[in-house]
Automatic annotation (TrEMBL):
<keyword id="KW-0472">Membrane</keyword>
<dbReference type="GO" id="GO:0008496">
    <property type="term" value="F:mannan endo-1,6-alpha-mannosidase activity"/>
</dbReference>
<keyword id="KW-0325">Glycoprotein</keyword>
<comment type="similarity">
    <text>Belongs to the glycosyl hydrolase 76 family.</text>
</comment>
<dbReference type="InterPro" id="IPR014480">
    <property type="entry name" value="Mannan-1_6-alpha_mannosidase"/>
</dbReference>
<keyword id="KW-1133">Transmembrane helix</keyword>
<dbReference type="Pfam" id="PF03663">
    <property type="entry name" value="Glyco_hydro_76"/>
</dbReference>
<dbReference type="InterPro" id="IPR008928">
    <property type="entry name" value="6-hairpin_glycosidase_sf"/>
</dbReference>
<protein>
    <recommendedName>
        <fullName>mannan endo-1,6-alpha-mannosidase</fullName>
        <ecNumber>3.2.1.101</ecNumber>
    </recommendedName>
</protein>
<dbReference type="GO" id="GO:0009272">
    <property type="term" value="P:fungal-type cell wall biogenesis"/>
</dbReference>
<keyword id="KW-0326">Glycosidase</keyword>
<keyword id="KW-0732">Signal</keyword>
<dbReference type="GO" id="GO:0016052">
    <property type="term" value="P:carbohydrate catabolic process"/>
</dbReference>
<keyword id="KW-0378">Hydrolase</keyword>
<feature type="transmembrane region" description="Helical">
    <location>
        <begin position="310"/>
        <end position="331"/>
    </location>
</feature>
<dbReference type="InterPro" id="IPR005198">
    <property type="entry name" value="Glyco_hydro_76"/>
</dbReference>
<keyword id="KW-0812">Transmembrane</keyword>
Length: 334
């Protein structure tokens, strides 16, 4: 999903297209198409599963980052291309998410996952910032594109929960913390990166729904200042993970640096006067059809072309002639 979000970002920011290659919008559409085709009503009345193949661990889970990622991608494709089909599917994903245990629109709790084994009546309620962020950006793009108040209410509801739960009072209320694992020192490599994505999605929400700007800005600014204090590790200015500490916390890794970069980038996004583009302002990013398919097995071979068939026919003939020649030689020797 993240590949698709990166591709649509390239279209929205006017990143140069590559001559002779599909446009960034086309690549985003290809990701969307492959994921939308995985919508599964055999259990839970819909949703997409966390894993693609049934033999993968966790296949029956329907989680927020997968469904929220597709929701955001659909919303952004809809806004960029002005194609109603994307908006319709984005609304479908939101409605399903809100009717499932993933999103509680009363208290704006976003759960991590729900299980298809139990027809999605239970939930795994570990609190991760990127689950909130991924839906937040999607609702803000929907509000910007449609102007409908329901999307603004949803944006404000998600932002309210995100900006309180993950910006603890004990750290001054303006420093981002992945609260479910940082204090316990249990963040794995994925979790270390969640704040970076969430920070940028908060900045996107502020751009798409300017009424949220004053809520988002102090959170991101306070976090950037905290990141600056943390980035003094060893002799290479490594950034740490627990931004609320005054000095580097000793945690290394690519994901930690990516999170810090995301936090700084989010602030730069807030300072930018550039507008997020659409097909009207970036016509070079028009959609092109790409043939996409998913294999039933991870080691499946590519589709067979006419050239492949001709080549296999020639090899078969040569192989048959070789066998006949060998048989003739054996008969002659006898």
């Amino acid at each position: 999903m993240f590949w698709g979000l990166a591709a649509i970002t390239a279209s929205e920011t006017g990143f140069p297209e590559v001559d002779g290659k599909p446009t960034w919008t086309s690549l985003a559409r290809a990701v969307y198409t492959m994921q939308a085709n995985r919508w599964d009503t055999r259990a839970c009345d819909g949703g997409i599963t966390w894993q693609i193949h049934p033999w993968q661990a966790g296949y029956t889970l329907r989680n927020s980052i997968s469904n929220g990622g597709l929701f955001q991608l659909a919303a952004r494709l809809g806004r960029f291309t002005k194609n109603q089909t994307y908006f319709d599917f984005a609304e479908k994903i939101w409605d399903w998410s809100a009717e499932s245990p993933l999103i509680n629109t009363q208290n704006w709790n976003v759960a991590d996952s729900t299980s298809g084994d139990n027809n999605c009546i239970d939930m795994g309620n570990m609190q991760w910032s990127y689950n909130y962020g991924v839906y937040l950006a999607g609702t803000a793009f929907m509000y910007n594109a449609t102007g409908e108040e329901k999307w603004l209410r949803r944006t404000q509801g998600l932002l309210g929960k995100l900006s309180t739960h993950f910006f603890p009072e004990e750290y001054g209320e303006n420093v981002f913390s992945e609260v479910s694992c940082e204090k316990l020192h249990t963040c794995d490599r994925n979790m270390l990166n969640f704040k970076g994505w969430s920070s940028m999605w908060m900045a996107m929400a502020a751009q798409m729904a300017p009424v949220t700007y004053d809520t988002v800005l102090p959170k991101l600014q306070g976090s950037a200042q905290a990141i600056g204090r943390q980035c003094d590790g060893e002799t290479e200015n490594l950034c740490g993970s627990r931004w609320y500490q005054e000095t580097w916390d000793g945690i290394k890794g690519l994901e930690v640096q990516m999170a810090a970069l995301g936090g700084i980038t989010a602030n730069l996004m807030m300072m930018s006067n550039a507008h997020t583009q659409t097909i009207d302002t970036n016509p070079n990013a028009k959609e092109q059809f790409l043939d996409t398919y998913s294999d039933d097995t991870p080691d499946a071979l590519p589709l067979i072309s006419t050239g492949d068939r001709v080549g296999s026919w020639i090899l078969t003939v040569l192989w048959g002639l070789g066998i006949m020649a060998a048989a003739w030689w054996l008969i002659k020797q006898a």
